[in-house]
Amino acid sequence: MPSLDDLKKRIGSVRSTQKITKAMKMVAAAKLRRAQESAESSRPYSDSMKDLIESISKGYSPTSTDRNLLTGDEKDQTHLLILFTSERGLCGGFNSTVTKALKDKIKELENNNKNIKIICVGKKGYDILKRQFSEKITEVIDMRAVKSVSYIDAKNIADKIIKMFFDGDFDVCSIFYNKFKSVISQIPTEQQVIPVANDNDNETKNEKKDDFFEFEPGESEILEELLPLNFTIQIFKALLESAASEQGARMSAMDNASRNASDMIDNLTLFYNRSRQAVITKELIEIISGAEAV
To answer: Could you say which DSSP state residue 166 is in?
Structure first.
């Protein structure tokens, strides 16, 4: 049985940990407000951009056989998977859930004999994947120096990936990130970004006959400008959603940790009081026994 001094030290240690978890919860709550506003304000723009691309590309057929961001080049042998996770831990299942979604995708692609490349945006995703898929990870993008996600960060990532695409390094690109829903709920999301996914390909081709829009300049020129912008916007959205989800998950995790620390302190205090009472009772018995023996 631990001594009373050991119990005191343990109670003090748990209280110190509780102070840290409460402070981290408050910091996460402060960051969450800004991150949530940024993520939610980006959704209408990114969704409108996606709808605009789909509208312009209805029935569009490239005049060149060269690969492009809209339709690719009709190959799907090499898949690039981009995983968005955090740089730090202590955020519950935030990193593990989205990484599991990526692992499921890898298993599906491997069953279809596809080549796979992975880019990790954030260190924690790399830490989870490096043992099993180290040979597939081509790059880890360090975001530790980024205090607040900006459009420049997204553009730097997007420009690098677009260059890889036109260099022929991959055929299809998908992003995996946590979409923010609430403090206690983040949704692992998969989105194909190259070529641009269109869930209504057959319908849009048929609808083209009923469209009477004319584009100036032509569709090719408009798409040439909009497609790289759309890709960057989707990367930016993923960064913002991931940042908000991270702070929400960390706030929830630290709240649970603080509650668990309170329960542990209560249990340790009760055990300490009982132990102390037992020690006092034992000493009294020894004193009384000694007095009777005299």
So the answer is: H
**Per-position DSSP letters for 215-281, written without gaps between them:** -SS-HHHHHHHHHHHHHHHHHHHHHHHHHHHHHHHHHHHHHHHHHHHHHHHHHHHHHHHHHHHHHHH
Q: How far apart are CA 33 and CA 199, in angstroms?
A: 33
- All domains in the chain, ordered by first residue: 48-253 (3.40.1380.10)
- Using DSSP, state whether 114 is helix, strand or coil: coil
Q: What is the rounded CA–CA span in Å between residue 195 and residue 76?
A: 10
Alpha helices in 57-93 (DSSP H): none
- 192 burial (CB, 10 Å; 0-12 / 13-18 / 19+) is middle
pLDDT 10s digits, 187-234: 999 999 988 866 554 444 444 444 545 666 666 777 888 889 999 999
What are the pLDDT digits (tens) for 141-198?
Answer: 988 877 788 899 999 999 999 999 998 889 999 999 999 998 888 999 999 998 886 6
Other C-beta atoms lying within 10 Å of the C-beta of residue 66: 8
**Cα separation of 29 and 255, whole Å?**
10
| Predicted pLDDT at 209 | 41
For residue 95, is pLDDT > 80? yes
Which amino acid is residue 216, in one-letter code? E
| Residue 72 to residue 227: CA distance in whole angstroms | 12
Annotation says 91 is catalytic? yes
Angstrom distance (rounded) from CA 203 to CA 206: 5
Q: Which of 28, 53, 81, 91 is catalytic?
A: 91
The helix (run of H) or strand (run of E) holding residue 56 is helix 4-56
In angstroms, rounded to a whole number, what is the distance separating the alpha carbons of residues 56 and 43?
20
